[in-house]
Amino acid sequence: MLRPAMTAVMLVMALAACDDGGGGLAAGGPLAAGGVAGVAANTLPQSGQGNSGGVLAVSGSAPAAGVEATMSYNAAGRGSGANVIFHNGPMAEVSITCTQAGGGAGVPECDVSNAGSAYLVSELSGVHSYTGAFAVNGYGAGEGQDGFASIHASPEGRGFVQLPGEAVGYTGQFQSGGSLRTGGKRFSGRATGSVVMEADFASGAISAQFSGTLRDDATSLTTPLAAGFEGAVIDPNGRFFNTEDTSFAYGGQQAWGELDGAFYGPNAEEAAGTFGFGNDLGGMSGVMIGCSEYNPVNCVAPSPRF
Prior knowledge:
This protein has one helix spanning 7-16; strands at 43-45, 53-58, 64-65, 69-73, 82-86, 95-97, 109-113, 117-125, 130-139, 145-153, 160-162, 167-182, 185-200, 205-216, 222-234, 239-241, 247-250, 253-264, 270-279, 282-291. By secondary structure, the protein is mainly β. It has one domain (4-291). The strands form three sheets. A nine-stranded antiparallel beta sheet has the order 3-2-10-9-8-7-6-5-4. The protein is globular.
């Protein structure tokens, strides 16, 4: 069984397995003129509970986008934890129930079916969207795989989101596991900080800048962390993801990456997503949420703050 303190180490091993970036999801493309057939222009179906997106990092391989899962809060709401059932890939039919919120100093262990153990490593919650990252051990054939899956979802399951017709900025937070070599030292542990996204709905492109701190698990020392991406695509379903034309940066250098996200709320008030990217300096994989009108009350788990 993988102890909670080892989740970041497992993630770092997965991130280090890829030495170059490149292709992303093949599906989707720039926003089509006129929106979706049978629906008013720029009125797009929201992904909802049955089609959550995400990124999976398996020990010994690089992160890959395309995770699908069903997510809901427990009966007491966002402060009582989440329920997640994975539908595809190596984690298909794995079910996780976390009875307390995560994302703080502790890493809660969760109940799990079709796997040996599971931990809620990171968690962010907006008014309309949710992102969570889970370390899952002992799943798949022979229960011999360990992995790290992050998802974004709409616990409310709203049916439609009205996309703006112009550029909109989103400000919020990110949480991740990661590693970074800087100043002759290797930092490996938990990263947190702010994210600023710019979504140009007219051209169908989105970019982001991450600024935060990485705390080393072994020494508790911290180091500044900067990352970002440019040229990710917003598709006709209100999702966003990387393509071969997306550029990534990590620790001030060019990086490879995987990205999966979507817009949530009646008027696309929130942008939530999951990511995994890095380079020879290290890498990080985790979750993010941003709001178009950010303040500490209306965005990223107003009560309780995860």
